[in-house]
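Ops channel
N.P.: pipeline sanity check, posting one input/output pair.
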């Protein structure tokens, strides 16, 4: 029996590590097209800069939650606190990379005013629109440079307007949609027609970004206080359960489960409410290529 159990554990560890690193036996691969939801989830991971598949991301999140739950259970001997710790740890990677995704998107938006000023300078120096965009891929703002470096390669294989359409879908935000629409117009109507429009867009984008900065700064203290008020009670409770057998006995009982569950639900509702109230309305993409 020990041999069978050891063999089973070894197979489980092998498959788990295979999912983690992306290497699994060929016979376990299912030959089917990715579902639409999986494609959106993969796009989300790519935008966050996470070079893994959705299955790998979920597997690592679950594994980290299980490990943390086991550690808390071993230390406090309170299953309800172990479940809370495991759930928070399991949700942490998504929250972390959601923040990273927002930061990457924000960096691109912050770079657009300077990028537009560079393009305007190039156009006024009698450079073509295509040459201005190629130069943006060489010496433009760092967050946008990889996209226009890709434009340079695509323009040599496709026509210039199609290459710019691909970059618009890569950037996938309303501000980029508006700017690239004007650049596409410049290919048809000439650069001199759109210089003033690009200048107005650069100024409007700068003002919008300053306003968002002011709102984020005003909300920072409230967000930090909300997170502290949600997590600190459970940290204090874990410390009490470690140091006091009475607390440990109560919170390991069914009544303790009820208290911890109620507290967890209230914390989640509070965090979601604060997040919802502080959410800045996002502009919809009305100029996206697939919406035409």
């Amino acid at each position: 029996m020990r041999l069978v159990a050891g063999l089973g554990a070894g197979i489980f560890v092998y498959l788990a590590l295979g999912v983690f690193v992306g290497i699994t036996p060929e016979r376990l691969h299912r030959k089917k097209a990715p579902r639409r939801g999986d494609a959106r989830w993969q796009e989300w991971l790519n935008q966050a800069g996470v070079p893994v598949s959705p299955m790998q991301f979920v597997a690592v999140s679950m594994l980290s939650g299980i490990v943390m739950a086991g550690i808390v259970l071993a230390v406090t001997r309170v299953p309800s606190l172990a479940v809370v710790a495991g759930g928070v740890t399991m949700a942490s990677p998504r929250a972390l990379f959601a923040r990273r995704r927002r930061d990457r998107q924000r960096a691109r938006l912050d770079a657009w005013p300077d990028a537009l000023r560079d393009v305007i300078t190039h156009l006024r120096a009698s450079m073509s629109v295509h040459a201005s965009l190629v130069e943006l891929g060489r010496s433009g703002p760092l967050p946008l440079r990889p996209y226009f470096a890709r434009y340079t390669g695509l323009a040599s294989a496709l026509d210039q307007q199609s290459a710019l359409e691909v970059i618009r879908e890569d950037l996938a935000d309303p501000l980029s949609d508006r700017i690239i629409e004007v650049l596409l117009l410049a290919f048809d109507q000439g650069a001199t027609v759109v210089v003033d429009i690009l200048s107005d867009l650069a100024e409007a984008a700068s003002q919008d970004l300053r306003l968002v900065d002011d709102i984020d700064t005003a909300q920072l203290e409230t967000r930090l206080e909300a997170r502290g008020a949600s997590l600190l009670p459970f940290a204090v409770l874990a410390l009490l359960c470690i140091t006091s057998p009475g607390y440990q006995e109560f919170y390991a009982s069914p009544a303790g489960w009820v208290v911890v569950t109620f507290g967890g639900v209230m914390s989640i509702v509070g965090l979601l409410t604060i997040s919802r109230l502080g959410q800045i309305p996002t502009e919809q993409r009305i100029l996206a290529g697939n919406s035409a």
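N.P.: looks fine end to end. The radius of gyration is 26 Å.
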